[in-house]
Amino acid sequence: MKWVMILACSAAAACSAIDIDFAAETGLLYPTGQWGKSLNTGVDAGLFASWIVNPSFRAGLGFSLSVFGSSDQGAASLTFLKPQLKAGYYLRPWGKVFNPGVVCAFGLSRSSLSNSGGTDPATWDPFWKIGLRWNFSLGGGFRGEIGGDYSSIMAETESGDVFTLRFGIAREVAL
User: Fold this and answer.
1) CATH code for the domain defined by 18-174
2) Stated pTM of the model
3) What gap in Å lies between CA 38 and CA 22, rounded to an integer?
């Protein structure tokens, strides 16, 4: 019974001092490789919640939505919904002006292709991404973030690689 009380007290102490980072990101997508031959530049938007483990490291989850148009007069569109686990490491935590960092994520991507002739069945494929970030203060508890990502969807027939230019706004809160 004693170990249950110790475990309960430890859990309560850990939960009483949780710092969470809520972020909204958007970006421009530039397909590379085989995808670059048939897709135009796309747009991406995402929402994320991360636990600030320590001043330098944060980990959490979220999702993003990406949309591409075809390069042949926009006759088709390709949409991705990506639930994901995300982690980031920053070199100068809470630096007001210069706080570089590295971000990585992995998850599943739901791909959906639509064109004038109909819609292909949606597929779920694993994906990963890695990127560099520059995090800076916007004042009032908000932080801005700019950077770039390189990501790959590992589909059965053909992998899709994308370079993304990102901008995000985050709010850190203590629970």
Assistant:
1) 2.40.160.20
2) 0.82
3) 35
